[in-house]
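Hi there,

I know you've been waiting on this one. I reran it after we fixed the sequence typo, so this is the corrected version. Both the input and the resulting structure follow.
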Amino acid sequence: MTGILKNEYIHVAKDGTLSYGGNQLWSASAAVRRCGCGPVAALDTALYLLRSHGGGGRLLSAFSGPGPIPLAAYDALLRQLCKSHFPIVPPFGTNPTVLTLGLDRLLAGEQIPFTAHVFPATGKMQERIWACLREDSPALLAIGQNFPQVWQKNRLPFYRRRLDGNYAAASGAKAHFVAITGMEEDWLRISSWGEEYYVNYKECLRYVKNHSASLLCGLICCEKKRRAGG
């Protein structure tokens, strides 16, 4: 399966450079810097859907146009939404269900024609991710904490795609949210910490099975609303 977003993803401008999605580490809030990855992924998703599919709400209207978003404006909006839609509890952050409810409420309030749903991390994730991308919608992946051995340090590997098309190990994460912006067979293109990385889908399933749990991991999908009678 192959899929990719149709339009340009969200960029945040900081000191003359552009990110690939937001980066919680740039926030003025210590709480957001520590555990704001979920709100960042949800906000970027809402902004992408607004720019690509329209809407008419009050909170996001200033960001509906094309082009990069200045960091100060992005961070102010992110911190506001962490109070109103995406509550975080340091040091635990948030969970897929709470994040989904907040994202769904934000989409409805901003009249963006999508609705958010959460699914456990199972073998059907690949089909659901493809369905999201086919509708020109990012998918959010929750990479769960190590469980039940919460003290362990196992991480899901992140990769960079090299010019020759191969993938080189670059980083990794646990207890983390990312936005999926593309898929090519078993490779998922993601936005994390304002950077473009890749995750291997089969490695993701192994991480869930061996080091975490399906209910802790999970996938958040935004589905386009259907017109009545359509």
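Quick highlight: The mean pLDDT is 94.

Best,
R. S.
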